[in-house]
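Dear colleague,

Thank you for sharing your sequence with our group. We've completed the structure prediction you requested, and as agreed, I am returning the results in plain text so they can be pasted directly into your records. Please verify that the sequence below matches your submission; if there's any discrepancy, let me know and we will rerun it promptly.
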Amino acid sequence: MNYEEFKNMLLKNGSITKYWNYFISIGAILLGLYCLYETNNTEFLNAYKAKHNKEYPTLVASAITTVLVFVGLYGFWRIPKTYEVKTIEAKTTVEQKVQIINRLVSDFKLKEIKSNEKYKHFRYVGRFWNRFDLFICFDTKNFYINAQQRELGAQSGFIDLGTSKKVANKISRAIRSYVDEESTA
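Please find the predicted structure tokens below.
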């Protein structure tokens, strides 16, 4: 399986989740804009401000609006990054790559979910019991890695605070070190 096939497989497997996350992002933006509209056009708030001479309800509504729009825009920025693939150059044999993956499984206590000759899908539990789906593929020249955080009993969301990228980097560093050990041996 090469890079393009791996990337297409990830996009195909996550298509429902991706569209659901875009739907949530659009909903957050629309709800935020609706709150902004209601804040500026509500007679209750104008009467409250006139009677009590306080701006608190308007400030709270503006804060809610800002947060909702920010979450929606963050989703549009973050969702494509869920399917980014890290490439690690490895000029080792296929047998050595299989050994590297076996070592990775034992060192990181990975639970195998799905597997074939050159593609592996693992479950990884992070430091704070965060669960990740780890996808690893290799061909004659490279390893390809993707990590996606999983919510409890569901597909991944788009707010993971960078933990998926950290896990992918951690696994990449481990594979690089294993490749370096194999190539010097």
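Summary note from our side: The CA atoms of residues 136 and 145 lie 5 Å apart.

Kind regards,
the structure core
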